[in-house]
Automatic annotation (TrEMBL):
Upper classification of the organism: Archaea, Methanobacteriati, Methanobacteriota, Stenosarchaea group, Methanomicrobia
Protein name, entry field: S-layer family duplication domain-containing protein
UniProt keywords, alphabetically: Signal
Annotated S-layer family duplication domain residues: 58-304, 332-574
Record Pfam families: PGF-CTERM, S-layer
Chain spans, region Disordered: 607-658
Domain PGF-CTERM archaeal protein-sorting signal, first and last residues per copy: 659-679
Residue spans of biased composition, Low complexity class: 637-653
Highest taxon of the lineage: Archaea
Gene3D superfamilies according to UniProt: 2.60.40.4190, 2.60.98.40
Native species: Methanosarcina barkeri str. Wiesmoor
Length: 681
């Protein structure tokens, strides 16, 4: 009997652990986010109407290049653009339909300067390909490409045995440093495996090692790495080499583009030396309320509207920090950015609502005079995502490229960020908690199936805020939670939750929620007339409108990032010609998108912070041959094949999965057996 009891108890404990794990998994939240970088907004009754609008095109085509489409590769210093996307007025283009070969993507090899201009490396060939920066393996052929990993003018010091992580599995190791001879022995590795090595002298030649690799997509002598050694010197203990320029391509994952490749709806490929042109071999429909893939992460987002309104966008899923920029301006002419031409500004496609403008005027040389820089934003109204549930609209205000909700619909001075506006469905059983984000949560306290009611509790950081019993057999099934003393305002709607139904599951009573709207009232802000926002320091608040100008002159200094205010910047070209654009930074990492402030190093359209690290590594003499491994982008040839597919999602979801009901009968059955056996004995 004791042996049986011990066995039964052990099994019961194991099942309890599994049940707990299942329940824990059910209550976890999943977040999947992307950065969406969009192009200009096109609006009209039909494609024919849009094509005829001289503000967009010339009746024969509308074309987006990097000056208009922030996702496309752009080198502001050299004013280099290589990509364009056009909709052409061909046979079959009308209404919402683009005719055969009417959607044209084109890219042509250009030239860019190395980041370190002092080492006199000249320039290198570059090409944007579906909004990513690539390096052609041959300067006059666009069909064989490798991504740029690094182009840096940062300084790094390496002592003997140390390894410099260059990114994407590539590294550079200082094997030995010869101070007397002013030389350093460097080794280049991929995934820890030897690729090549070189002794670089700093007292003769150009102090540069250009590493060339054979058999990269069938090409030999391909320059894949350039390293400039500034100096070697004797430290207090160690001999040290200083590197001040590194350029590297991901040759191991080089791709080959063929004429029979297909890229989403773009499936007619033509390669003519330095130019790739890809068109649609079939008609392309801009369906109402949809995201239509163009190819390789490029999409059209089409409004839920009877009018035809759409924009192109690139969906970024790779963690990193992205510059989301506006139209490029050359010279001193006045210019105004709105949500139509500045992808960073808040924009609601469905309602065609943008609230922000930024303008420059009276620029003299590189100086914007007092009050020549003007930022303005005005409250507007948008639909709830769950517009079939929550009737009406709510007030919204873009403020320095962030979406806010005014606490009062006619007063722009008191704002709270929008946390959630969702029409996703969530199921909660008694005791379950729905994580809404930013420390807010919604808990199902009890579910009354007979009365078709659920008792909900709203919490912040685990602390009680409010609760309500919501009925599904009368009224609008909605709880609107109002809070007092939010920046001095009472009865502020901070949460709306719609309960679709309550029902009896196999074991538990369950409530289904199909609409949630929430603002971050706990961190609401108040804007005062004496506030300052970077260089914008003259604040005027007039009911629903905020206007902020510069009380001092503003300099567009060559080769600089000048903060406008609150994380919004001007990037100014390293050029004798004045060329600049506004931008904000968005960081994608660990499933979340955040606005990033601070100093970052720009690498094509992506910026990374401290991309390289130094790691001490044992010194080993290696004679291994290069290991060239590759991944396989869709429809393109590579060195080797691995799966690089990724799931992209524009929303952040928090869902409770179906509970592990099957565990409960197992536990019950085990207890029953235990009881019967014990009773019989």
């Amino acid at each position: 009997m004791k042996r049986f009891v011990a066995s039964a108890m052990a099994a019961l404990m194991l099942l309890t652990v599994f049940a707990s794990a299942a329940m824990a998994d059910d209550n976890t939240t999943s977040a999947a986010s992307t950065v969406e970088i969009r192009g200009p907004v096109y609006n009209g009754s039909s494609l024919t109407d849009i094509l005829a609008n001289t503000a967009y095109g010339n009746d024969t085509a509308i074309t987006m290049d990097a000056n208009k489409f922030a996702a496309f590769y752009y080198d502001i210093d050299n004013n280099v653009t290589t990509e364009s996307l056009s909709i052409k007025n061909v046979a079959g283009t009308s209404g919402r339909t683009i005719g055969d070969n009417g959607l044209v993507y084109k890219t042509t090899i250009g030239k860019a300067e190395y980041e370190n201009k002092d080492v006199d490396w000249g320039n290198y060939s570059v090409i944007g390909f579906f909004a990513d920066k690539y390096i052609p393996l041959k300067s006059n052929a666009a069909d064989k490409l490798a991504k740029l990993v690094l182009d840096s003018d940062d300084k790094y010091t390496l002592k003997t045995g140390e390894s410099l992580d260059l990114g994407d599995g590539y590294s550079l190791q200082a094997k030995q440093v010869d101070v007397d001879g002013n030389k350093v022995w460097l080794e280049f590795d991929k995934d820890g495996e030897y690729v090549d090595d070189e002794i670089v002298s700093t007292d003769s030649g150009d102090h540069t090692w250009t590493c060339k690799v054979d058999d990269v997509q069938g090409e030999d002598d391909v320059p894949v790495l350039k390293v400039h050694v500034n100096q070697v010197f004797q430290g207090a203990v160690d001999s040290i080499a200083q590197i001040d320029a590194v350029w590297l391509i991901d040759y191991a994952n080089a791709i080959k583009i063929n004429s029979d490749d297909e890229f989403g709806k773009l499936n007619d490929v033509s390669i003519n030396g330095p130019t790739i042109t890809i068109t649609n071999d079939d008609t392309f429909s801009l369906t109402k309320d949809s995201d239509q893939e163009i190819g390789q992460g490029l999409y059209f987002k089409v409004a839920d509207s009877n009018d035809l309104r759409f924009y192109a966008y690139k969906q970024q899923t790779t963690p990193g920090t992205y510059d989301v920029r506006g139209t490029v301006v050359s010279g001193t002419q006045p210019y105004t950015w709105t949500s139509d031409n500045f992808a960073g500004f808040f924009y609601d496609l469905k309602k065609n609502v943008g609230t922000e403008t930024l303008s420059v005027s009276d620029v003299n040389g590189r100086t914007i005079p007092k009050n020549g820089l003007n930022y303005s934003t005005t409250i507007s109204k948008v639909d709830y995502n769950a517009d079939d549930i929550f009737n009406g609209t709510y007030p919204v205000l873009g403020f320095f490229a962030q979406k806010y909700v005014p606490l009062k619909s006619t007063d722009a001075s008191k704002l709270a960020k929008l946390v959630l506006d969702s029409d996703d469905k969530y199921t909660l059983k008694t005791g379950d908690t729905l994580d809404l984000g930013d420390g807010y949560s919604l808990q199902a306290k009890q579910v009354d199936v007979d009365g078709n009611k659920v008792w909900l509790e709203f919490d912040k950081e685990g602390e009680y805020v409010d609760d309500e019993i919501v009925s599904t057999d009368s009224g609008d099934h909605t709880w609107t939670c109002k809070v007092d003393d939010v920046q001095g305002e009472d009865d502020v709607p901070v949460l709306k939750a719609h309960v679709n139904q309550v029902f009896q599951g196999a074991v538990d009573s369950i409530a289904q929620i199909d609409g949630v709207w929430l603002i971050d009232y706990a961190n609401a802000i108040k804007i005062n007339s004496d506030d300052e926002f970077g260089k914008l320091n003259d604040v005027s608040i007039n009911g629903p409108t905020i206007t902020i100008t510069n009380d001092d002159t503003f300099s567009l200094t060559k080769d600089s990032d000048q903060e406008i205010g609150e994380g919004m910047y001007f990037k100014v070209a390293d050029s004798s010609d004045l060329r600049y654009y506004p931008y904000v930074e968005q960081t994608l990492g660990n499933g979340t998108v955040t606005t990033t402030l601070g100093n970052t190093t720009s690498i094509d359209n992506t910026t990374v912070t401290d991309n390289m690290s130094v790691t001490p590594t044992p010194v080993v003499n290696s004679t291994e041959t290069p290991d060239v491994n590759a991944s396989t982008p869709t429809n393109m040839e590579t060195q080797t094949t691995t799966d690089t597919s990724a799931t992209a999602n524009n929303t952040t979801e928090t869902k409770n999965k179906s509970p592990g009901f099957e565990i409960v009968p197992a536990i019950f059955g085990l207890l029953s057996v235990f009881y019967i056996v014990r009773k019989n004995r």
